[in-house]
Structure formats: C-alpha cells, structure tokens
Design goal:
InterPro entries: BTB/POZ_dom (IPR000210), SKP1/BTB/POZ_sf (IPR011333). With 248 residues, this protein is mainly α. The chain has 3 domains: 72 residues, Potassium Channel Kv1.1, Chain A (2-Layer Sandwich); 123 residues; 30 residues, no CATH class. 49% of the residues lie in helices and 10% in strands. It starts with 22 loop residues before the first strand and ends in a 6-residue tail after the last strand.
C-alpha cells in the first residue's frame, strides 16, 4: 500500500471568518472568529485552553484583553498565513512612524515568547534587527529598549542582547550625550539595561586587552622584538617601546 498523500490546505482565506468558526478570541472591543484546527496545533496555549476542560473550551470564547491588541492581531494573522504584516502608522514625521512600527515588532516578539510560538518569535526578532541596524543614535531608541525590558522575561535574551549590542556599537555617541538625554535617562530608569551594557563593554575590553602586546624597538639598529621572543604583530593593539637590543 502506498503512503497516504499529505493534504495541504490554504487557510488564509478563513482568517476572522465566521465560516466553520468554532471559537472566538476577544481582545478589548474586537472579536475574532477563529478555528480550533488552525490555532490549537500551532499554539500550545490554545490547545490547552480548548482541551483541558477550561471555561474557554465550554464557552468557546478566549479573552486576550490583557495582551497588546496589535500583537494579538499579528499572532492570529501568523497562525493563518505563517507571517504578519506591519500596521500602517499615520504620521507626517518618519521618526515616530519608524518608532511605532519598531515597537510593534517588539510586542509581537513578546507575545510570541509568552505563548511559545518559536517561528513567530524568530520572525519578529529578525524584523527588529533589520529596523534597528542604524538606529542606535536616535532618541527614540530609548523607547524601544524600555519596551523590550518591560515586556520580556529576564531569562529571554533574544531582544535584550540585541539592544545591548546596538548600544555598545554606539557607545561613543552615547557617552557624549547630556545626562538628561532620553537614552541616558532610560539607563537610570532601567538598571538591568545599564548593568547588561556594563557587562557587554567589559567583555569587549577584556578581549582588547588580551590582544595588546608590547613591541620593543632598538633605537640603535631599529630591530623590533617582543618580550617572549614571539612573532612581532603587524596589526592589533601594540605599544612601541624604545630600548637597545641584546646585540647592540
């Protein structure tokens, strides 16, 4: 007997459709008509809520009003389409628009982490990285960091380490900012971020120190040598010290 063929169904057209719907997801004033066969196999939370005798299973309603509304919409969109769209933000200034879109990706990452949706979490992380590549100097970067540290668990290092790395890449401009600048003020407000930045920069400093080597230059014959007789480095962190060599 030949192996049964897999059936692939396009369920994107049933997103928020009453047709065949057997479950409602409510978030504040919005109600989504969804399908257990779509959500439960992909999201453990829905599977448990619908199969362990909870009130949600008997009433057919799951209330997610405690979650970010836009993130809930993106989570449900992902369940039906394997991706999510970035909401359009109506503004005349490109900076607030970029900030609002960036915050959305952070909120999607947070809800994906909360409900253990690995692929959605990876998508949101990648979009966050793409958006923030050159944004570490922007004043609103502080708002992004604040949202990351307030919406993710301490043990979830995905976006936290990304924020710390971006801050480290821009440390020269950050230390020149006034003490009341948005980023400096945020670091005082969120000590965990300041601590993470200190650890990150300390590790970078340790690596640089290990690369450091003293090279001696004979002021008579101009020959170069190291204290341990090793090969003279051509690049890296080198201190040149003049003194006479053994031969001279």
């Amino acid at each position: 007997m030949s192996a049964p063929k897999l059936i692939q169904l396009d369920v994107s057209g049933y997103m928020n459709s009453a047709k065949y719907s057997d479950l409602e997801v409510r978030c504040n004033d919005t109600t989504y008509m969804v399908h257990r066969m779509v959500l439960c196999p992909q999201i453990k939370f829905f599977d448990k809520a619908c199969s362990l005798g909870f009130m949600e299973a008997t009433e057919g309603v799951i209330d997610l009003s405690h979650d970010n509304a836009a993130a809930v919409a993106s989570m449900l969109e992902y369940a039906y389409t394997s991706t999510y769209t970035t909401p359009e933000v109506q503004t005349s200034s490109p900076v607030p628009k970029a900030c609002a879109q960036m915050l959305h990706h952070v909120n999607v990452y947070a809800i994906a982490s909360k409900y253990e949706i690995t692929v959605l979490k990876a998508i949101a992380k990648n979009r966050t990285r793409t958006f923030l590549h050159d944004m570490g100097k922007a004043d609103w970067f502080a708002d992004i960091v604040r949202e990351v540290y307030e919406s993710t668990h301490t043990s979830d290092r995905g976006l936290r380490d990304m924020m710390v790395s971006i801050a480290g890449d821009n440390h020269s401009s950050i230390i020149q900012q006034e003490g009341n600048s948005p980023l400096r003020a945020m670091m005082a407000e969120i000590p965990d971020f300041a601590s993470d930045c200190f650890v990150h920069m300390s590790k970078l400093y340790d690596k640089d120190v290990k690369k450091f080597e003293t090279v001696y230059v004979c002021y008579i014959c101009e020959d170069k040598y190291t204290a341990n007789g090793g090969e003279v480095p051509l690049s890296g962190f080198v201190e040149l010290v003049e003194r006479s060599c053994v031969g001279c």
